[in-house]
Amino acid sequence: MVDGLIVDGSLVEDIRDTDLPLFRSVQVGFHNINYSIEAADPAAKKSNPFSKAVTKEKSILNDISGVFRPGRLTAIMGASGAGKTSLLNVLAGHTDGGSVSGSVTVNKQPVSGSAMRKESGFVFQDDVILATMTAREAIAMSATLRLGDAVSAEEKERKVEEMLDLLNLRKCAHTVVGSPTLKGISGGERKRVAIAMELITEPRILYLDEPTSGLDSFTAYSVISILRNLATTGRTIACTIHQPSSEVFALFHDVLFLAEGQVMYNGPTSKVVDYFGRLGYPCPEHFNPADHVFMAILNNQEGSFEEKKEESNADRIKRLIQYWKDSPEAADLAKIRQNPPADTVTLKKNQTAGTSYSTQFKYLLEREFKNSVRNPLVLRAKAGQSLILALIIGLLFLNTDDKTGYAANQNRVGVLFFLSTQAVFGSTMSILGIFAADKLVFAREHGSGYYSLPAFFFSKIGVELPSIIVFPTIMATIIYWMVGLQVDAAKYLIVCAFVIMVSLTGFALGVSLASIFPSLPVALAVTPLLLLPLMLFSGLFINDSAIPAYFGWIRWLSPIRYSFIGLVKNEYAGLQIPQEDGTARAGESYIADLGFSNGLSILLCAVILVGMAVVLIAIAYAALANIVRGQENSKPARKGKGTEVAEEGAEMEQIEVVAVKS
Ligand SMILES: Nc1ncnc2c1ncn2[C@@H]1O[C@H](COP(=O)(O)OP(=O)(O)O)[C@@H](O)[C@H]1O
Ligand SMILES: [Mg+2]
């Protein structure tokens, strides 16, 4: 087993004993970490199923102390549900909810969650990368948006190239990342892209949650050996891992075994077998030590160690955890934690990263544009929908201008109503799905510091605007001339404007629904419930003068109604409808029949529609801002006990190693 680094054929325990450049090394220490969440209490629920949800404090991590050493790769191992992901999240400052106590230090400095987030990279188990970006573009995005405006474009390019080489991504650089529905790069390549996106900001500390899950054993080996190489240049890397092969296990410098939210061992991988051997669990020869710990010690259901058969699994784990606390190894580790290597603590202020709003906005606009070009199906579907629907309606109501009497009137009202309803339904439903998916990408990318909310929000609207203008116009044009509404340029343009405005309101409604509701299925369930009354009260199904007072207010909320009234007033003004008896009836009298002889002029309807769109957009923005605030507040409140108490919100200085070697 190799512990340390091989330089010129000889083994060195510590990179600081070599002439290799040390990469801004920092040591992460953590002491007495406790993490608990409010969880629904199933016991209380059972006794009274109608009682309000009773919550109970559920402890997930219990008094965890340990250290991630610079220049070393640490594995966090343990059974499923042991708390590996939770520990990583707490240390990296990524917890959402729950209460955290204890202290996290970088070298000797206590750090808050938000400072740690700035200081470290985090590769999530389920990486969220926009499917239509190529591997290279994804890495370049990270460079463009996260390296700050102070770094020149050429320098960013150079770093992207460097990452492609470092992570062996040349072959797939120009392949799209892909998604379940879009064929893209392989799972191992995808993971390496996610790692590259973090590494490009040169974090001193890198956390990875299950970087090998879903990969075959060879790919897993290659990913972990890349991590090991990165660590040996002085970075501090910790990853959770589930059942590594013995080859992969041997790549880790250190391990941290977790059982039921507590530490069972933390220290060099090379000493694991000795340590557990001493406790009476010798690893059989030719046996994977990782499997040995996993099967025989962490999950020993069968009692394969005869002499301890009478001891239950839970008791054994309790005993082993206590044994670790009292062990000389734990005492040694505490010393290491309290005395980080002296040559790593020279601090100096770093320039602040992050790009300007305009860089972010421009970048996102371009990315979204590329996304829609590479995802032509969505655009084609929208175009096809507009064309086909318009032709069907056009044929259905063909030459209404030749009709007389009741039919002529019914057709006109019908087609104007259809234009209003379709625009709202069409745009609400189409943006709902898109925006709900984008919201997830946004939450992740914003959390990782790629861009701000306004840059995302307004670029998204900017990209969608053309299709809100073009497709409704196509539809309105085809229908207008096939049906034979009044031959009048001004009236035609007003119809187009109304269909665009009401589409815009529908779009804004979709965006705010997608922003407010936590998931797409919920939003999809609520939307019809909202849209149907808006349609019902739009003035076609029930006469305006007949709506009962207790429902009267709903009509004022219906964008379909404002559009419908505007379109009716536009078309019927100056219209003469021929009757069966040869006379003609003035269009204005129909307006009165519909109950629309009110103060709502065409202009007022238009103003209200645009106003509604603005209000809905503002609501959507507020909902997203709320999500963002939740993310920022996830910084754990440290109410630590013990000596190394971190002050709440204590910001760590940006540090840079000046002295490389003492
Ligand atoms: N937000 C949460 N709500 C409820 N239970 C949680 C939450 N986060 C973690 N847990 C619970 O904490 C335990 C540890 O979870 P986790 O850290 O994901 O384990 P691991 O990554 O080791 O599989 C599990 O029992 C899990 O159900
Ligand atoms: Mg996990």
Q: What do these coordinates show?
A:
The protein is of the alpha/beta class and 662 residues long. It has 2 domains: 5-35 and 56-344, 3-Layer(aba) Sandwich (Rossmann fold); 357-630, no CATH class. 52% of the residues lie in helices and 12% in strands. The chain has helices at 42-47, 84-92, 113-119, 135-146, 153-166, 187-199, 217-232, 246-251, 272-278, 289-298, 313-326, 328-338, 357-374, 376-396, 405-447, 453-483, 489-516, 520-536, 549-555, 559-572, 587-593, 602-633, and strands at 5-7, 10-12, 28-40, 55-68, 73-78, 99-106, 109-110, 120-123, 205-208, 236-240, 254-259, 262-268, 576-578, 584-586. The strands form 4 sheets. Strands 8-9-10-5-11-12 form a 6-stranded mixed sheet, sandwiched between helices. Strands 4-3-6-7 form a 4-stranded antiparallel sheet, with helices on both faces. A two-stranded antiparallel ribbon has the order 1-2. Helix 15 (405-447) packs parallel to helix 22 (602-633) and helix 20 packs antiparallel against helix 22 (602-633). The longest helix has 43 residues, at 405-447. It is elongated and about 110 Å long. The protein starts with a strand and ends in a 29-residue tail after the last helix. 42% of the residues are buried. The model is unreliable at 1-12, 14-23, 344-352 and 635-662 (pLDDT under 50). It binds adenosine-5'-diphosphate and magnesium ion (MG).
